[in-house]
Write a structure and sequence with these properties.
Layout (H helix, E strand, L loop, with lengths): L1 H16 L1 H22 L4 H8 L28 E4 L2 E3 L8 E5 L2 E5 L7 H11 L7 E5 L5 H4 L2 H8 L2 E5 H8 L14 E3 L4 E5 L2 E7 L8 E9 L2 E8 L11 H20 L2 E6 L2 H4 L1 H14 L9 H23 L4
Parallel strand pairs: 4-5, 5-6, 6-7, 11-12
Antiparallel strand pairs: 1-2, 2-3, 3-4, 8-9, 9-10, 10-11
Bound molecules: zinc ion.
Length: 331
């Protein structure tokens, strides 16, 4: 009996190490990658490549600290561009910041590194004929330096209200006072149920999508294109590297993708935006708008309801593949 029990105890570890299980895991990973690849098509190719193909090992201090001195602008600066009648792109070549214009002022979505605040956001608004003093809210998709280092400046200089997920506020407020870009004062905190933020004629649906960080937020909001009003989905946390072997972290990220995909579908979102211009090609797409108009082509950001859903399929399937890589036994 004792020998039988002992055999039972070692059976699971034998199963886990068996080539059959390893092969099953490998083929399941392949299946998720194939599904993501088909979903990506040409629309979301960069997102697919960056999320689905095995990444190089992370440096131990990921995310890396922000350099104290701004890097050479030749490597990141991009001019501001009008994308829709009420939406302006104020990003760098790597990261997006957006200005959503309402009847009562501006909502800034993500703020980039601190060195981009003045050249991209403040000067960008002025170049486009907008007034930075009209910034009423700053929505931070998540508390990483490449998206939030302008928040303290916009809060103290223009009195803008800062909106962040509750757990990311806690992380932010633990920063030292001399953190790059400064530390914003605690302001509007978004809990697990999300919220609607209304400014004048515009309402932004804020959807918590924890995973990339515990307080990551995504959004659904209206954009105007001539006489048409369309709905845009904004993905707030993209990269999933460094999640480790705890399945719960992966499952949270995957559940979040499904939640924002559903919110996008419910709102009939046909425009897809994110916070990483290097992934979603925001800079290139924005530059193509006049050419597309001239050629009678569709607006480059209006990808259609089905493509918006495919974006989230890429996110979900790549996360499922990465979860298996990180958590399942393989050879
Ligand atoms: Zn991040």
């Amino acid at each position: 009996m004792r020998r039988f029990l002992k055999a039972l105890c070692i059976l699971p570890s034998l199963l886990l190490a068996s080539p059959a299980v390893a092969q099953t895991t490998a083929s399941r990973i392949d299946a998720h990658i194939e599904t993501a690849k088909v979903a990506a098509g040409l629309d979301w190719r960069n997102t697919f490549v960056n999320l689905c193909l095995p990444a190089t090992p992370l440096p131990p201090n990921f995310p890396p600290p922000t350099p104290a001195v701004a890097p050479d602008p030749a490597g990141w600066y991009a001019p501001p561009l009008k994308v829709f009648d009420n939406l302006y792109w104020l990003g760098t070549r790597q990261h997006s910041s957006w200005a959503l214009q309402t009847s009562e002022g501006l909502i800034i979505i993500d703020t980039n590194f601190h060195w981009a605040t003045d050249p991209e956001i403040v000067s960008g608004l002025l170049t486009l004929g907008l007034n930075p003093r009209d910034i009423k809210y700053v929505l931070i998709s998540h508390a990483h330096g490449d998206h939030d280092q302008g928040a303290a400046t916009l809060q103290s200089r223009y009195g803008a209200r800062i909106v962040m997920g509750a757990p990311d506020w806690e992380d932010t407020l633990r920063r030292p006072a001399d953190a790059p870009g400064g530390v914003p004062r605690r302001d509007i905190s978004v809990g697990r149920d999300g919220m609607n933020l209304t400014l004048g004629d515009t309402t932004v649906r804020i959807v918590p999508t924890p995973g990339h960080t515990p307080g990551t937020l995504s959004y659904v909001f209206p954009v105007k294109n001539g006489s048409a009003t369309l709905m845009a989905a904004y993905s707030g946390g993209t990269i999933m590297r460094g999640f480790g072997a705890d399945p719960a972290r992966w499952d949270e990220y995957i559940a979040s993708q499904r939640r924002i995909a559903r919110a996008a579908a419910d709102a009939n979102a046909t425009v897809m935006l994110s916070n990483h211009s290097e992934f979603d090609g925001a800079y290139t797409r924005a530059r193509l708008i006049p050419a597309a108009r001239q050629l009678g082509e569709d607006h480059p950001f209006i990808v259609g309801r089905e493509s918006v859903q495919r974006y989230f399929t890429v996110m979900t399937e790549c996360a499922m593949a990465a979860k298996l890589r990180a958590t399942a036994p393989q050879r």
